[in-house]
Amino acid sequence: MAELDAVVEDGDGAPGGLYDNALFEEGRGHVLVHRPTARPPRRGRVHPVTLPAVELAVATHTGPHDDIDVTYGEVGAWVVANALAVAGPVRETYLVGPRDTADPAAWRTEIGWPVFGVGER
User: Fold this and answer.
1) 75-81 contact pairs (CB < 8 A, 24+)
2) I want to staple 12 with a disulfide (CB 3.0 to 4.6 A). Which of 36, 56, 76, 95 is the partner?
3) Which residues contact 19 (CB under 8 A, 6 or more apart)?
């Protein structure tokens, strides 16, 4: 994230990340960190990408990331009960984080799990 912040001069929204399912299942996989900007730079490992549109089941984790797995479990349980999980990376959006405040209790991380709705919600 520090490398991205050093290159993106004028972010237009909250930064985030896309995390392959393999990271959770196998402990290894791909990660893409991103930060919206109207003028995407290309320098070093930083390059423009367009994130595909996707339907997500979303929950907001409040506080430090030490127990973010609990929120992931809650989203996963909801997905199993109410939707069909689809292949694709889980998305995190860092609404409030270390760059905003040194108080971990104030952090807010949005977790988005790719789904295909199968019924009324």
Assistant:
1) 75/111, 75/113, 76/113, 79/113, 79/115
2) 36
3) 29, 31, 89, 90, 91, 92
Cα end-to-end distance, the chain, whole Å: 35
Quick: pLDDT tens for 41-76. Answer: 999 999 999 998 999 999 999 999 999 999 999 998
Fold of 2-117: Multidrug-efflux Transporter 1 Regulator Bmrr; Chain A (3.20.80)
| Tokens of residue 74, six digits | 């809650």
Res 84: pLDDT? 81
**pLDDT tens-digit profile of 6-36?**
999 888 899 999 999 888 788 898 999 999 9
- Domains of the chain: which residue ranges? 2-117
